[in-house]
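User: Here's a chain of 95 residues. Predict its fold as tokens.
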Amino acid sequence: MIRVVAKGKLKPEVKVEEYLELARDLVSETRKEEGCIYYALHQDIKDPSVVTMLEEWVDEEALKQHGKSEHVQRIVPELGKLRESIEVNVYKELE
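Assistant: Prediction complete.
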């Protein structure tokens, strides 16, 4: 199993709801993908401009295919324009 934590900080001038609207579209489409176990958007309680996507995939190939999907290719660049930073960590489960 592969887990991804993608934590982003929005630019100060960005309206949080603008970002969330795009991100929710990404979540909706991604949940339909084969190999997606869990994909959800989270917002920091103390700082609403910090938004994190938590993901679980059956394997690295499913994550790779996700990156090639039409909705990722279309939405992720738009989200990137609204963030000042992003940190993405990919983990494999140990036995």
